[in-house]
Amino acid sequence: MVIAFTFYFLPFTFFNIKPAIAATQSPTLTIVQSQENTNQWTGITNRLQQAGVNYCVISLTNVRSAADWGDRQVLFLPNVDTLTPAQAIALEEWMSKGGRLIASGPVGTLSVPGVRQLLQTLLGGYWGFSLNDAQQLQPAKNNLQNWANQNELFGKVRGGVVVADDVNSKAAAVWNSKDNPAAVVATERSTFFGWRWGVDTASSPELDTAWLKAAVNRHVKQAANTSNKVEGGSPNCSTSVALATPTPVETFRRNVSTGGNVSTGGNVSTGGNVSTGGNVSTGGNVSTPPPPTSFPAPLIATAPQPRPIPNVNPPKSDEAINQLEQAVRLDVVPNSNAPISSSDAIALQQELENLIGRVDSANLTANAISNNPPIVKQAQPTQVASTRPGVPISTTEQARNIAKNLPQLIAQQKYAEARQQWIQAKGNLWQQFPVDRQLAQPEIRAVWLDRGTIVRARNEQGLSEIFDRLSKAGINTVFFETVNAGYTIYPSLVAPQQNPLIRGWDPLAAAVKLAHERHMELHAWVWTFAAGNQRHNEVINAPANYPGPVLAAHPDWANYDNRGNMIPPGQTKPFFDPANPELRQYLLRLYEEIVTRYDVDGLQLDYIRYPFQDPSAGRIYGYGKAARAQFQQLNGVDPISISPSQRDLWQKWTTFRTTQVDSFVAQASQQLRQKRPNLIVSVAVFPLPELERIQKIQQHWEVWARQGDIDLIVPMTYALDTPRFQRLAQPWIASTKLGATLLVPGIRLLSLPVIGAFDQIQVIRDLPVSGYALFAAENLTNELQKVFGNTQGSIGQGEIIPHRQPFKTAAVRYTALQREWKFVLQNDQLRLPQTTLSTFNSQAEVLQSALDQLSAAPSPSKLIAAKATLTRFVFQFRTWMRQENIDNPYQVRAWENRLATIERLLQYGERVQLRR
Predict the structure, then answer these.
(1) Do the Cβ atoms of 606 and 541 come closer than 8 Å?
(2) Element (H, E) at 170
(3) Is 914 helix (H, G, I), strand (E, B) or coil?
(4) Glycosyl hydrolase-like domain: from which residue to which, for each copy (predicted)?
(5) Which stretches within 707-772 are classed as H helix?
(6) What are the C-alpha distances in Å from 99 to residues 70, 104, 522?
(7) What is d(CA 720, CA 723) in angstroms, rounded to the nearest whole number?
């Protein structure tokens, strides 16, 4: 198992600032008062005075925007268990403008799932569980964080384990207990104390004071190079506040899944050309008529004259997606007796517990579908099943015991035994998935139908067999590769050449007919800014340096790196210059031809980006003729002459390139929807963190989503193990920056075992998303098709697809959710007192009625009623499930996520059914 961390080396110096708010000195620290820490306020303020920290106070109930957090450098959330989505989003925005955050205790643990996920991202970890007794704090092993190495920081504390989960987070202190779990976690912008700060029964005033002074001093020094105030913050602040009681709407304004600029969980080495949607090599075994033996000689475009830069080693892989897929995998090697670190032990334990949850969840769904009992009128809270339905007690309980005992085995240095038990438990649990029973709800079940598979089909009859297989597997949406490496799959009047491997038929026309006959949607999948492919050249016997038919005819449309290469070292694809107006018009004409000549249901933009770059290593791209001229006209300098060290100019150059992609997506969406108002626009995108992605490929799909330019985001969250897949997918699932756009995570089937693919799909079904996409059709084996057929069923008339019928999807998915609740109630597996049960049942029926009415006859008034009812229900749901959340936290989270999916479907439906 590989885990990468980034270390930050900061000096440690205590400071002495006068307490409270001095007239001559602005406060350094803002402290947040909430309903939850009011009873602790005397202890909190006494420690602040003792620390000598110049502070001011704000009320959490008054926070609704980023400005409300204030313009101080550092914000302290002491023991705040609940934040609303609006407050969490505002906190993320405040930190993005330079704010530093300190938090203590089980911060946000009573918030909705999306808020918890966002706080986990901002803090680099989350409150795992409370310790039974006071434990000794001690420095973390190999602790290089100089700000946290003073003797005053270490003593006995009663607190809890903080689980670090972000690539930039590191334990600054640990508990002196088995496997030394983290007690304090820090990132560059945050510090998280694993105890209730300011509470005498948790820690001493001296220790609390020492930690606060160390953390504030650290963050003040970090902020010193920026400014004295947070950009855009309000200066309003007081020494005391009056707390108001929040309303349910304030506490749960909207059940969003929150996230933001989230690291995918490792130092991802992504050298090479980024694959967006997948580069499918047909290999040399394609039985087709021979392609042409000669090609027009490519014209030579004018390349930039680059400034000299040092030679750099090209990345080992020309496909960055492959390196992303391999990074930070949870690899467990059988019989290895190599030491297992405490962080690895926690990861193994968590994954086993999560797998138990996924197996239980899948079985519950399958059982609820096959047995739909009436609502139970009498609750029996004392009778609770020890396992979930459909899973043998021995298998599940054995796995739970192994998860529980892993830390002990590792503490005894029985590493090989720990690994062997973990592998055995995982294999046994995988066998308990209900792969032979129906369990799928209405969802997007998409597959990329790649060029190689289309070519091998040879004709419409061969293609018909492929669509039959996809339909029997329950696939309802096909991304059909229509433009690849500059060639169209169909005979075009706009593009210079149809793919030479296609002779005598029109695969796109056939695909549209075959899909619609089977009640499936057909979306044309097009390469946008990737102009050619050296691998494709090999297949069609073209010269290696052939740039594709479009660039061969229009060399001025080419893009270049800073050395004048059309194809950067280590990569295989030339790219267009997105700033070239003629190129943009050509692409728009081509896409208009596709959506008007063919009855396609959607258009998917792939390679909607620049090639992969690494500015820190001297690999930079984007110096097309048009781009250089436009940038020089705007800024008075040729971009080839600037470097990343020139911050202002470099930021302008990065923004310029990013804007070229943004504006093209907006232009294409608007123009094509004028021709086809019901066209679904999707994008295949790369799942790097937002800021890193902008620097490396200029792909800012959050902007496209917020503006409503796209309907579906399909991040290529490719991984060979489920934990890695979830780490890649969850930040985007949790993002608040996607507007009403639906998220459809991608799963790569190549080298993935059948049950591994099913496991990743179950992750998606337990998270707040609307479906999945499989790459690619050529990897859909007979065994996988059988599993899909059993669990998803064949596509038939009346198939509900979320992006077509979002309101109906929401109603049907909620009905399925109610079936699960009824099933566990009937089987005495849900602890609800009689009075609570009565309220729960009645409110559940009210929500069902509101969703059904909206589905039957959508209108703005019915949408408002449904959203308000959902908000009320979700607000009460966590209270109703308080005991169940202790007994079975995974299932409660899964139910909350499905409610969040319904809320997102209502948002999307508002945009596409009521506004468009």
Answers:
(1) no
(2) strand 170-175
(3) helix
(4) 443-751
(5) 722-733, 754-765
(6) 9, 17, 46
(7) 9
3-class DSSP state for residue 844? helix
User: What is the average per-residue pLDDT within 839-846?
Assistant: 96
As a whole number of Å, the end-to-end CA separation of the chain is 48
CB pairs under 8 A, 24+ apart, for 139-143?
A: 139/173, 139/174, 140/170, 140/171, 140/172, 140/173, 140/174, 140/180, 140/182, 141/174, 141/180, 143/171, 143/172, 143/173
Residues 6+ apart with CB under 8 A from 718: 321, 324, 325, 725, 728, 746, 747, 748, 775
Condensed to tens digits (0 to 9), the pLDDT of residues 861-881 reads 999 999 999 999 999 998 999
User: Does a cis peptide bond (omega within 30 degrees of 0) precede residue 103?
Assistant: no
Determine what percent of the chain is predicted with pLDDT higher than 90. 58
244-277 residue pLDDT tens: 333 322 222 223 233 333 333 333 333 333 333 3
Q: Which of 52-61, 276-285, 425-434, 506-515 has the highest mean pLDDT?
A: 506-515
| Separation of alpha carbons 698 and 731, rounded Å | 19
Measured distance CA(164)–CA(128) in Å, rounded = 9
Q: What angle do CA 476, 479, 483 make, to 5 degrees?
A: 160
Tell me the C-alpha to C-alpha distance, in Å, between residue 756 and each of 427, 749, 787. Answer: 11, 9, 12
The C-alpha torsion from 618 through 619 and 622 to 623, rounded to 10°, is 60
Q: What is the pLDDT of residues 629-657, one digit of tens each?
A: 999 999 999 999 999 989 999 999 999 99
- pLDDT score of 279: 36
The runs of H, that is alpha helices, within 640-717 are 647-675, 690-697, 701-706
Q: What angle do CA 573, 577, 581 make, to 5 degrees?
A: 145
What is the share, in percent, of the chain residues with pLDDT greater than 70?
81
User: Which tokens go with 350?
Assistant: 């968590």
Q: Please give the structure tokens belonging to residue 440.
A: 């799928």
CA angle, corner 879, sides to 875 and 880, nearest 5? Answer: 105
- Per-residue model confidence (pLDDT) at position 394: 57
Two structure tokens written together for 317:
């892989």
CB 429 within 8 A of CB 355: yes
Kindly give, in sequence order, each residue whose CB lies less than 8 Å from that of residue 842, ignoring residues fewer than 6 positions away. Answer: none
Report which residue type is found at 881: M
Contact between 806 and 905 (Cβ < 8 Å): yes
8 A C-beta contact, residue 605 and residue 544 = no
pLDDT at position 383, please?
28
Q: What region does 758 belong to: left with phi over 0, alpha with psi -120 to 50, or beta? A: alpha
Evaluate whether 664 touches 703 at the Cβ level (below 8 Å): no
Contact 220, 73 (CB under 8 A): yes
Which are the contacts of 533, defined by CB distance < 8 A and separation ≥ 6?
279, 484, 485, 548, 572, 573
CA distance 607 to 571: 14
Residue carrying structure tokens 């005894």: 412
| Three-state helix/strand/coil letters over 58-126 | EEHHHCCCHHHHCCCCEEEEECCCCCCHHHHHHHHHHHHCCCEEEEECCCCCCCCHHHHHHHHHHHCEE
Q: What is the DSSP letter of 135?
A: E
Q: Is the pTM of this model over 0.90?
A: no
Choose among 230, 227, 198, 223: nearest CA to 212. 198
Q: Which contiguous run of DSSP H or E holds residue 522?
A: strand 521-527
Spatial distance between the Cα atoms of 808 and 96, rounded to a whole number of angstroms: 38
Which backbone phi and psi does 244 adopt, to 5 degrees? -105, 155
CB 816 within 8 A of CB 368: yes
pLDDT at 467: 98
Helices (H) and strands (E) in the chain, counts: 27, 21
Largest Cα–Cα separation, the chain: 85
